[in-house]
Amino acid sequence: MRRLQLLFTTTALLKQGLANGSRSGADHYRAQPTGDPYNSRPYDQGESAADQDSWGYAYPQPPYEGGGYPEDGAWNDPSNGPVPLSNEAMAPRANAEQSANERSEGKDVVAVMQSSAMGKLAVATTASVCGAALAGFISANTVNRPLVAIALGLALGALFSQVGGPVGELFRAMAVTLILALRRLPSLRQHYPLLKQLKAFVVRRRVRFPPNAPQNLWRYTPAPPAPGQKASVRFSMARTVMAVFFLSGLIGNMIAKTIHIFFPFMITLAFSILGAYVTTLEASHGDFVRCLGMKFVEIIRILFDAAGETKMTPKTLALAGQLGTKLGKLDQKYQIRSRVGSATSFLWGKATASAERIQKDMKSEGGDEAFSPPPPVHDTYDGYDVYNAPPQSYQASPRY
């Protein structure tokens, strides 16, 4: 009899333990130290002591209506299954997810990118590429030594990405901007299939761009996506025409500088007008040019969005402000502006005096007669003027 009582007592204790274990088990939202912001929160966010387990982790709000956990006995009844959440009960968790996303978006993108060794290497490499591009552009418009400038830009870009101050911040921001833009560029292939449009242009089988657009492309507006369908193509006819006008002019300028036949600006303007006209055509080549122009617009938009995330504009203004402050201090110390102004005034006075002296010399002693052009020189033979000689009659020489 005593053994039966012991058996029943053990069975009851096991049931009680299973009920408590189901409350704190992994299948019933027990918080484990996994780093998940929703399943492992330290007891520092306002939870009550009843929601804290023995490990110091707090139970998140369980997804059941009414809040809290069911009573221990309710778990043993299969009919008391979990009740699906309503919108009101889902609101706290949705707000928590939104706040977590806002906290992650509020972080500095550059700092997040450099939080790992591979990120630091990627930022340094991309910063060196940006430095080489800037140095090559400056060299092409000044000294025309591209190889030396590109090598110097590579070294300076990698160096500036590791230093502090506004210069380092700006170079790191440029590098992260380029990385983010390169990551987002593949998303444009779905809406702007440039190779597909090129193939349609070559085989003369038209694929209209943008798809499902009205006859008047100037009135195109993206429609909201239907359930189960992809979003409409982002398209603006005005922006596309401006983009093609710029790209065509750039191509025309390169051709004009290569062939050296006409004035470069005339060829540039002709190519720009031709490209803008082709953009408006309802043909396969018009579709290809529209796809190219709008893809260029989207690439620029991606670059601007990435620059906004990395705060390129504030960092550029900070560097410009620091340079202005240093130049102001140098000007106060060495009087640079006054000396440059004095040198400019001196050179201008010398040039003006020289011009006046030359003009005075031209008008002195005889005026314009002293500098009158010489008389025309005629062909002569032994002092005889051939052109001004009087006409003479021809006489035949006598025969001997």
From TrEMBL:
Residues 390-400 have a biased composition (Polar residues). It comes from the Eukaryota. Residues 19-106, 358-400 are annotated as: Disordered. Keywords: Membrane, Signal, Transmembrane, Transmembrane helix. The chain crosses the membrane at residues 121-140, 147-164, 237-255, 261-280. Coiled coil: none annotated. Residues 1-19 form the signal peptide. The keyword Signal applies. This is Uncharacterized protein. It comes from Octactis speculum.
